[in-house]
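Submission sheet (multi-component)
Chains listed below:
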Amino acid sequence: MTRWAMVIDLEKCVACQGCSIACRFENNTPAVSPEQAARGRAIRWNDVFPFPVNPTEDTGEYPNVKARYMTRPCMHCENPPCTKVCPVLATYKDEEGLVRQNYSRCIGCRFCTVACPYGVRYFNWYAPQWEDPLALRLNPDRLESRGVLEGPAVRPKGVVEKCTFCIHRLAKARARAEAEGRAFRGDEYVPACVQTCTGKARYFGDLDDPNSTVTQLEKSPRAFRLLEEVGTHPKVIYLREG
Amino acid sequence: MLAIDARDKEKIVAPLFRTPRAFVLLVLILSALVAIGVAAYVRQVTLGLGVTAMDRPVYWSTYMVNFVFFIGISHAGTLISAILRVTGAEWRRPITRVAEAITVFALMVGTLQIVIDMGRPDRLPFTLLYGRLQSPILWDIVSVTVYFLSSITYLYLPLMPDAAILRDNCPSDAPAWQRKLYIVLALGWRGNHEQWVRLEKAIAVLAVLIIPVAVSVHSIISWILATTVQPGWHSTIFGPYFVVGAIFSGIGALFLAMTGVRKALGLESYIGLRQYRNLGLLFIAMNAIWFYFTYAEHLGIATGQQVEEFPVLASKLWGSFAPTFWVMALAMVAAFWVLVAPLLVPAGAAKVALFRPRLALASASTALILFGILQRIPMAPTLAALDTPNATTAAWVGVIVMLMLAGLGVAPWLKARPVTATAIAGGLVLAGMWLERWNIILPTMTHPRLIPYAVYTPSLTEILITVGSLALFTLLFVVFFKFFPSVSIWEVAEGRVIEEARSKIVVPAPEPSEAGWLRPRRFKL
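Outcome: structure written.
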């Protein structure tokens, strides 16, 4: 079995937001106007934000700030709260542990966005739009069959979308291995954010493979997961700073 | 040919074949409001849900509040009328029809809110085609559908003999289609013994079965929130808390509706003080239970001091949701007082100078002015503690004392007008319960774990659709009672027979008179 997982070393992360930008172009996430973004409608499958998110008396004030930066893709939880509440199976965890989202099934009830404690799910308040040069250079990749539309495919308005661990890249890597007549190896595919990471802070691989980098790093004493107390068992593992 | 009492014919049947100008005007106004709401919705569907004020993290807002509110009101009816039927409360007879109609229309408008809230309403059939029974939304679809179908049956069954009565007692100038409507709805009712036995049996069975259905409906709505892990929602008491709130707001809606019907059709001889008094007692009890639940819920969060949950509570107590939270609390206290005061105040109280409406008005305005001044003084939450007595604390005490004086002052005025008092209480509770749903859904939505805290103010689209929904509910209610009797004719007639038979039995102790509402028992010292 395969369980795709990501390790993010916060010691190496420089908060350059390169992962966020790479994700945007890889997955055709529309850029919204500054007014819409100010209203909390920006879509960032991979977000970089100050942590803790809301300043408290513990985080301090400039220049004595104790806040850090956190980068956050979808956690692809082992026990995802979002898939459990979906009324129509538009979101589900597949056999490789990826939490997937089918845009042609989603009814836009936003129960999953409410249920996710990490806030990784985004809703298309309007139909997505791109400025002209961008509109001509969208990523053509998509996962599509009857009643299924996934991956970087342009989303219709009124549906929920989220990080897929670049599932179209996995499909392409699999297809290549098959075309070359050999077995698919776990290190043949990484999501765009891992590929682009400036500080090489991100690692990707199979948690069920005892020799993969992520399995080795998971054992580190620095390893922790976000909001472990809510019982979601995320497959994104962070390595603590310091 | 079914006979009808002359009193019923004049008071209940005759208005069904008249179209007064006020009715036309009311329907026109309501239709206009509904049309504006529909226009706002069409715009929302065309452009996307972006025209609302929803965002990340406020993924659910006004529509969800409306949904919970309307489904809550729907408990007015069926649940109350079913419980009263099962327990054989004789006084229920004139108000069951109104209660059952509220249920059906509130369910229609409530369910509509979910469709309005959906990003892809065109995919609504997916919930049936691909429905996952593990999702609380599917539980909701199942329970609301069962409740709707059984409520509509429960409204229709007692309506059948009435339709037959109308069929047989149509005035000669009644329009043909209206006559036909009653013929079809009467389903060939002849009123023979066998038919009565079957009808009574069906109603009795349905009344028992509908009670668990009604309880399940609002429990499941609460579980949509409580099954998530979000701060403030993940609570075990949400199920009973929501059911109690639903019955509470249901009685409030029933108070307003029955007062409206009573006024509009002049049904004083049917819906009397007895109905108001008895429902009022039920209302007072529900109010107390509601307060108990609210207190228990918030106490748990306050003393738990969880890092994620406490900001939700803090926003209600002194943060951005303080206005809606405290207005809610005040509305509920006022509703309680409006019904309890007339029972406590002795008859001669109006002679005491303290009990004057003028004084009440004066102290209420003083409280308002004091409150206005206090709003200008910034207050840290820690100062709310009473260990630092200062002018601010004294002023807050002053506000509370003035409000209590106002409450005492209006008591005899309320005592003299039991129907008005009850309608006021009903209105206060409807407003309070809408705010309660708001105070449950929005503070949690705006205080998530890993998203910056947000502020939400509804957009014009949401306000117009909310107003349109309220208008639609009223419109359905008004139009329904234009064509169907607002008081169950046969049930009231049956009640008269029972009453008459009872009056022939000599009972040693006399029944409490109608004036019992006005003359409460005095405590002997």
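Remark: Chain A has one domain: 4-239.
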